Amino acid sequence: MWHSALLLGAFLLSGQVRGSDGSASTAITCFTRGLDLRKGTEDVLCPANCPLWQFYVFGDGVYASLSSVCGAAIHSGVITNTGGAVRVQTLPGQENYPAVNANGIQSQVLSRWASSFSVTAGTQSTALEAVGRSVSTARPSTGKRPKKTLDKKAGNKDCKADIAFLIDGSYNIGQRRFNLQKNFVGKVAVMLGIGTEGPHVGVVQASEHPKIEFYLKNFTATKEVLFAIKELGFRGGNSNTGKALKYTAQKFFSLENGARKGIPKIIVVFLDGWPSDDLEEAGIVAREFGVNVFIVSVAKPTTEELGMVQDIGFVDKAVCRNNGFFSYQMPTWFGTTKYVKPLVQKLCSHEQMLCSKTCYNSVNIGFLIDGSSSIGESNFRLVLEFVSNVAKAFEISDIGSKVAAVQFTYDQRTEFGFTDFVTKDKVLSAIHGIHYMSGGTATGDAISFTTRNVFGPVKDGPNKNFLIVLTDGQSYDDVRGPAAAAQKAGITVFSVGVAWAPLDDLKDMASEPRESHTFFTREFTGLEQMVPDIIRGICKDFLDSKQ
Ligand SMILES: *[C@@H]1O[C@H](CO)[C@@H](O)[C@H](O)[C@H]1NC(C)=O
């Protein structure tokens, strides 16, 4: 029995399973998300006995594509937690995904997501489902299941997070509850599984002025962290949580202080009562730095105290998504043990860390480069230098930002598309290698060409799209219509004019507000100075689109 189960296990894990009716199903895991599957319709096979509390499901009936497929299937009643065949249908994104409790799963609210899916019963034969069941029940008896070996030094490798605990050290909390808070933070630290390859933590104390108690790099073993937490002294003072949050977002996560590249940055703000200052600006700064802010609030202000709260909506303003995921409430500091595990699960679900997205790692930037005769070879080199300097600022990778370039005269030539080069070095050398075309100027046609051929293939992706049009003169065709169509397709247009480029054309092409999306310089040498303004403009638009 055991060897056939193993064989079947290997068969299922290898991916394709063929049903008796000939349809192919892909065996997936409990954590496969909609966005991990192919577009269109796909038949999949969910395993049995998924850990229900670890499912992330957004929506009801129609689910955001970052939801677990098997979780959604159980939530919608298509299968039970004994596994089974599910047909997944890709759907367009929605403005809102509601939270509904059904079949043992609490789905969550999410606003605006790029794509969705729905689930219906799969077409697998019952024979195959029986096979799936026998495999999952037979497997433990083989004794071959890889045991989770707990390497203490490495820590929990499945939990990727760099976490700052921003603890409350104000008069609101007082010495006694401050100690209870330390207990709670200690319990969270223990359960996280801190280690060299697991989560790293540090502590900042908020009171009148913030104080970094220790950094991520100071301790990478649970025991040391617990000792450091025990040693924390209560500072007292006003509850300037906004000031402390801003300070932590700016100062805590530097590479020198132990932040790791590509690992989600998290600040867990503990708040007893309410903050004395404003959290809104601090929330914006945290977003700019790609930090995921969690607010753990304990003991909400009483009705009499409410009048003293500066801004009742402070929690929603501090977090990047007001979807309930990032805010967490505990009624008191007593009996908090049961709150430890759910909080740890949130902190460790790195695919939920939506706020890690910044303008540097989540944009597509297309450059539309005028190659007309009036520019001349040496000025054309200055234009390429400008393109290169803008591109340099972004984190280019297959999961990050992407860059494309099109050169135009009357004609258009895609120098490289968004998916051709996905490292910064390759993009920069591709820019360097662009040959000057020389010819007329048809900017309108070139915008249409770029919208269709360069942005078309990426328009449903997760990144925000930007087009930077560089030109030195009057276009022979209409620019207004093509630019409006590009904007309608979700592309933010910046126009950069040099020398004889007419300001009216530049403004007509640019996105609203036109003033801040239009740039002009008399000389080609002036392009260099515009680089920081363009980057700042892209980052501002990116943030505004997330509000
Ligand atoms: C953490 O590391 C920094 C730099 O190495 C050091 O200055 C500081 O004293 C350390 N803090 C603690 C609490 O060990």
UniProtKB/TrEMBL annotation:
CDD domains: vWA_collagen. PROSITE patterns: LCCL (PS50820), VWFA (PS50234). Residues 162-347, 364-534 form the VWFA domain. Residues 24-117 form the LCCL domain. One of its GO terms (cellular component) is extracellular region. SUPFAM superfamilies: LCCL domain, vWA-like. It comes from the Eukaryota. It is found in: Secreted. Gene3D superfamilies: LCCL-like domain, von Willebrand factor, type A domain. Keywords: Disulfide bond, Glycoprotein, Repeat, Secreted, Signal. Transmembrane segments: none annotated. The keyword Secreted applies. Pfam families: LCCL, VWA. Its main location: secreted. Plays a role in the control of cell shape and motility in the trabecular meshwork. This is Cochlin.
